[in-house]
Amino acid sequence: MATKTTPEEIDDSKLNDDEVDEEEFDDTPRREVHTIEPAKSIRSSCQGCRGLIAKGALRLREVFGSQYSRDPVSRYYHLGCGVAHVPHVFRQALADCPHELPDRAALEEQLAEVLTIVDAAQSTDETSVQYHTFIAQMCANPDDEATQLVFADWLQEVNDPRGELIAIQAQKQDSPNDASVLERERELLRIHGTCLLPRPLPGRVAWRRGFIERFQLTDGSNLVRSQLQTLFAHPSMALLRELSVEIEAAEVLVSANLPALPRSLAVLELDVGVLGDWTSYGSALGDVSALVDTTESLRRLRLVGHANIEVMAHGKLVALELRTRDARERGVHAPGALSLSVAARITKLSPQRLPALRHLRVEANAGLEEVCHAVVSSRLLAQLSRLVLRGQVSNRAARTLAAGLRNGPRQLTVDLGDSRVENEVRQLLEPVCDVMVQQRQQRNTAPPPMPSGDWLV
Ligand SMILES: [Zn+2]
């Protein structure tokens, strides 16, 4: 345990370092604590460049033990030289620095570059074990804010910049308009970008409390399995909750090119582009069963394009969203090979394979009558609590649904979206289910709503 040393206790015979200058003796050195302080004479020289440090200029003072001395010994650096030669010392001194540094931002930036910490918590075995214990706890309880803040404190103790990022983003949740909080958040991400942000980053991220909560892959040309594997292994992705993959007309089978997804994932959106040619191989998502298998926390799955969902099994999936151009149209799941239409796939969904499924959403420009028929003939109907239909729901489609629901579940809410739905459709459905019709809204060209947190990159 370090004891406080008063000036009277210092025995100058023990200070043998020739770099030490005389004002050492009227200072109050604290053991092992590095500081940034004004030079008191012109006699101190820099350990980095060997040049003199001007009197009054701020200098870094490194304090360390010596085998020749019981008392700590000091060395001095110009601030820039300190960053370059002893970055860890500089970082600690900077954290406690009471002085106004005119070029602080530049020094911090330089420091981050020199340190290039990938993850300070991985720096030793001991911290790494503790780090992964925290991550496991937070994966299991994503909303446990107390653990997150304990984790943030611990990270700050081991000098991991993510600690401050967690703290500042927690403050941001409480005061989203606080300018100083927003400024510090931007600053942290800029200064520590090399360790906090995966590179390259082929998309956009939304943060929540020090980790990337949502990642939206927008650059389809980068759908390369090994690159995505590296991306998902980045420490900032350790608690990824939402992944959105948008590929426009890429001649790749999306599901086959995705690596195993992060275990923390609750929302997965795969989109091969609504403007693409739906009858081409390029618009195929392929068999998503294997992907879904690896994501045990998955709750919501959105598929835009043709995907083999009929054999998909997941014990916790609550919401399934399907979007297609024409629900009657068969897709192409391999060059030259036709697959089922979306309506035919819905018929095959099974309660045994999807026991937790409660919400089904289908968006289609055409073929909703076939969708209604598929829903009422699927064994899934009994467990659904919400059916969302987007597109033109015709009277015939509504009659099909009403006939199927006559002896079906009474708790079903059918959400018909916008007011283009004719009154007759509502009147057909109202006796057999709860009907929701919203006011006229934007046509289905808007992207899905963003989660909490805003887009910073
Ligand atoms: Zn120097």
Explain how this protein is built.
The chain is an alpha/beta fold. The chain has three domains: 109 residues, Zinc finger, PARP-type (first zn-finger domain of poly(adp-ribose) polymerase-1); 123 residues, no CATH class; 176 residues, Leucine-rich repeat, LRR (right-handed beta-alpha superhelix), CATH 3.80.10. 30% of the residues lie in helices and 21% in strands. It has a ten-stranded mixed sheet. Helix 1 crosses helix 2, helix 2 packs across helix 3 and helix 6 packs antiparallel against helix 7. It is elongated and about 95 Å long. The N terminus and C terminus are likely disordered. The site of zinc ion has 7 residues, from strand 3.
Report the mean per-residue pLDDT as an integer.
78
As for the CATH topology of the largest domain, it is Leucine-rich repeat, LRR (right-handed beta-alpha superhelix)
Report Rg.
Answer: 30 Å
Per DSSP, the total helix count is: 15
* First and last CA, distance: 44 Å
How many beta strands in the DSSP annotation?
Answer: 17
Give the CATH class of the largest domain: Alpha Beta
Low-confidence stretches: 1-31, 441-457
Known CATH architecture of the largest domain: Alpha-Beta Horseshoe
* Residues in β-strands, percent: 15-25%
Profile the largest sheet: 10 strands, mixed
| Inertia-based shape | elongated
Present the secondary structure layout.
Layout: E1 35-38, E2 58-66, E3 69-78, H1 79-85, H2 87-95, H3 104-115, H4 125-140, H5 145-157, H6 162-174, H7 179-191, H8 193-196, E4 203-208, E5 211-217, H9 225-232, E6 242-246, H10 254-257, E7 267-271, E8 284-287, H11 289-294, E9 300-304, E10 306-308, E11 319-326, E12 330-334, E13 337-341, H12 342-347, E14 359-366, H13 368-377, E15 386-390, H14 395-405, E16 413-415, H15 423-429, E17 434-436
Parallel strand pairs: 5-6, 6-7, 7-9, 8-10, 9-11, 11-14, 14-15, 15-16, 16-17
Antiparallel strand pairs: 1-2, 2-3, 4-5, 12-13
